[in-house]
Specification:
The protein is mainly beta. The chain is built from no helices and 10 strands. The strands form 2 sheets. The chain has a 6-stranded mixed β-sheet with strand order 2-10-9-4-5-6, with no helix packed on it. The chain has a 4-stranded antiparallel β-sheet with strand order 1-3-8-7, with no helix packed on it. It starts with a strand and ends with a strand.
């Protein structure tokens, strides 16, 4: 069974940092591009970042320069390192690939 389990969300002050993790199982992790999406309260699902099988990242303009996506194929884990967080980054963050989307982890940026 394909599983994607996010962790690492929480409450952080504006300007702070947080790292999200996504533990993958049930498929050959290194063979799939992976992505992070987010959904803020009352808003549509928004693409945040993707990383292909060669480790090449892409970012939404809203997070470029602040967020870094990475993957550890040996650990079957996807990461999202988030710096200089803003209140508008508050959302449920999901990892996904073409097979499945995880359940999400809540990030709240507030003083």
């Amino acid at each position: 069974e394909v599983q994607l389990v996010e962790s690492g969300g929480g409450l952080v002050q504006p300007g702070g940092s947080l790292t999200l993790s996504c533990a993958a199982s049930g498929f050959t992790f290194g063979s799939y591009a992976m992505s992070w999406d987010r959904q803020a309260p009352g808003k549509w699902l928004e693409w945040v970042s993707s990383i292909n099988t060669n480790g090449m990242p892409t970012y939404a303009r809203s997070v470029e320069g602040r967020f870094t996506i990475s993957r550890d194929n040996a650990k079957n884990t996807l990461y999202l390192h988030m710096n200089s967080l803003k209140p508008e980054d508050t959302a449920v963050y999901y990892c996904r690939n073409t097979l499945k989307r995880g359940q999400g982890t809540l990030v709240t940026v507030s003083s």
